Amino acid sequence: MPGRTVCPGRGGALCLDLIGKCALAYRVVVADDLFKALADSTRRAILDELAEKSGQTLFEICSRLSMKHGLGISRQAISQHLAVLEAAGLVGARREGRYKFHDLDTAPLRQIAERWPLPRTSGPEESIP
Amino acid sequence: MKIHLTSVFVDDQTKALHFYTEILGFVKKHDIPLGGQDRWLTVVSPAEPDGTELLLEPAGHPAVKPYRDALVTDGIPAHQFAVDDVQAEYERLRGLGVHFTQEPLEMGPVTTAVLDDTCGNLIQIATEPR
Questions:
Q1: Does A58 sit within 8 Å of B105, measured CB to CB?
Q2: For chain A, how big is the Rg over CA atoms in Å?
């Protein structure tokens, strides 16, 4: 915590200022991870499949991408995509006995709607590709 | 050349024989003592008594555990067995207390599910593409 050394004796204002800047920087980093995670069609396909059924093994995710989406991606590449989704908080990995399952977590998406609020009355429904 | 034998590493041959015969429904073909506690233990499908044998092979070699643990963690099956109806078999086996890591999943022409054989492996059941 390099910022803490300047705090003693200088009153609370600087501290709060630093904490504020840190918090802002943290939010920017979190948002960057989120947008990076969403900016890839394979990762969006993984989210679609986890939205259909949460709690999948790596094997099931691989099967779904290959059989349902026709994506010829290696298991290693899918592991890396999952790591990016985990860093963004969109996917959580959970150990259950000898198995590891992946769950969808849409909570980080809330910050998008908070940053650019949706109109209160919904307009005509549009399908999103 | 024919594929007449394939094998699956099992933690405990007696327990494995029970699971593969009483639960999955295969039948014992050979059971020959090999010295020590190890047996040459094979099962076959009742539908194909002279078909490919599955050897329930002792998992004592030190390389087996890390190999199998890594596969099981990622949900990767060691073997695939064909069934007529994955959903019906899933329900039958669930009723017998079998644990599945993947519920029946329809993917185009194939339906699959993945279960734990209680002897250290995951097994995939699948409908054969028609």
A1: no
A2: 20
Q: Among B73, B103, B105, select the one facing A100 at the smallest CB separation.
A: B73
| Pairwise CA distance, residues B72 & B127, whole Å | 22
SS3 A58: helix
Domain spans, chain A: 11-115
Domain total in chain B: 1
Other CB atoms within a 10 A radius of the CB of residue B69 amount to 12
- Give the residue from A60, A65, A79, A94 with the most B CB atoms within 10 Å of its CB, the best one to mutate: A60
Contact A102, A56 (CB under 8 A): yes
Work out whether the CA dihedral A47, A53, A54, A60 comes out positive or negative: negative
The predicted pLDDT at position A9 comes to 42
pLDDT at B71 over 50: yes
What are A83-98's pLDDT values in tens digits? 999 999 999 999 999 9
Nearest CA in chain B to A56: B102
CATH 1.25.40.10 is the classification of domain A11-115: no
Tell me if chain B has a CB within 8 Å of the CB of A36. no
Identity (one letter) of the amino acid at A88? A
- A68: Cβ contacts below 8 Å, ≥ 6 apart: A49, B107, B108
ipTM, 2 dp: 0.88
- A81 CB within 8 Å of a chain B CB: no
